[in-house]
UniProtKB/TrEMBL annotation:
<keyword id="KW-0410">Iron transport</keyword>
<dbReference type="Pfam" id="PF00005">
    <property type="entry name" value="ABC_tran"/>
</dbReference>
<keyword id="KW-0067">ATP-binding</keyword>
<feature type="domain" description="ABC transporter">
    <location>
        <begin position="3"/>
        <end position="236"/>
    </location>
</feature>
<keyword id="KW-0813">Transport</keyword>
<dbReference type="InterPro" id="IPR015853">
    <property type="entry name" value="ABC_transpr_FbpC"/>
</dbReference>
<keyword id="KW-0472">Membrane</keyword>
<dbReference type="InterPro" id="IPR003593">
    <property type="entry name" value="AAA+_ATPase"/>
</dbReference>
<dbReference type="InterPro" id="IPR050093">
    <property type="entry name" value="ABC_SmlMolc_Importer"/>
</dbReference>
<dbReference type="InterPro" id="IPR017871">
    <property type="entry name" value="ABC_transporter-like_CS"/>
</dbReference>
<protein>
    <submittedName>
        <fullName>ABC transporter ATP-binding protein</fullName>
    </submittedName>
</protein>
<keyword id="KW-1003">Cell membrane</keyword>
<dbReference type="InterPro" id="IPR003439">
    <property type="entry name" value="ABC_transporter-like_ATP-bd"/>
</dbReference>
<keyword id="KW-0408">Iron</keyword>
<dbReference type="GO" id="GO:0005524">
    <property type="term" value="F:ATP binding"/>
</dbReference>
<keyword id="KW-0547">Nucleotide-binding</keyword>
<dbReference type="InterPro" id="IPR027417">
    <property type="entry name" value="P-loop_NTPase"/>
</dbReference>
Amino acid sequence: MKLSVSGITIDLGTKPAKRVLDDVSFEAYDREFLSLLGASGAGKSTLLKIIAGILVQDGGSIAFDGRAVDGVAAHKRNVGYVFQDMRLFPNMTVEENVAFPCKMRGMRKDARFERARELLAHVQLDGFGKREVSSLSGGQQQRVALARALAATPQVLLLDEPFSGLDEHLRDEMRSLVLKLHREFGMTTIMVTHDAIEAIEMSDRIVYLSGGRVEQFGLPDELFERSATSEIAACFGDCSTIKGVVEDGVFSAGPLSLSAKGVAPGSATAVIRQSAAAVDAGMPPLFPVRCCVYRGSTYLVRIDLEGQSLSVPSPSPVADGALVGVAFDGSGVFVYAEEGGDDAGR
Ligand SMILES: Nc1ncnc2c1ncn2[C@@H]1O[C@H](COP(=O)(O)OP(=O)(O)OP(=O)(O)O)[C@@H](O)[C@H]1O
């Protein structure tokens, strides 16, 4: 199912109302796995609810396979939805929860329980059907929520931060399970996440939302290697964000100078990934060390850049207050003009 989101705009709240989504457009192709990535408050969940029909937009349109569904009620859109807080029915057994969407569609009792058992097997919960939901662990409840979302054979699956309550080990398991089900069931899947690594690991493409607008829409490697804004470059973690000035294609902040070819002169922001910098005895010792911490396989040196902090890995410990040299690898250094942010250079 091709999903088209065209010019979606919505204001929420009163006194004053706030523009939560502003002219959001993108398309997910049939069977694509697409992530909506962005910081808290960017508008991701709001957009997911509009796609599901739980919330009605003020402007723009949602279309499935080219047909607008704006007037179609949520339960008639053939969309599966996994909520962040799962929203399982506590008064029903596991299989009653999973069978519920089929009941809503008028499926016979024996057929819908048969379907529920099949789905529970798919999410590795064979034999759990008669249990109370409250007797299950968080990870098991998340799988019940997933099975329930799949019950009515949706063509579009919407996942709102589906792994947020799980520990890292369970999260990995659930990611694999979701990708397996996405492929097996042949759905178009849209997942909300604020975890950039999760998004690049799982998605065919990523929509990055900021302040209710699409800042970048592309392949995972495009967002990682050619981030359109400093916010996107920084969202992958393990980086330093440094304010400075660009003049004649060079970014400076105290002793730090970086190539900023193509970036407009004036105030600018540099994002330097830790993987692109290293303490190097062969470089001029320009940078004062604020502190050095042990990180297992490496040390992490925090450099004081006139009040700003630059974090750089080091193969060996360095004394606080010492001056060190640093080598930079341009592939992980991004410079953006202060306004707009689309003047990225390296
Ligand atoms: N019913 C509402 N009334 C007023 N403001 C709202 C309403 N729902 C959401 N908002 C505001 O809209 C903005 C976007 O909210 P939304 O939940 O879509 O963000 P999000 O990107 O999913 O964030 P998170 O990752 O924290 O869930 C937030 O500033 C939120 O406070």
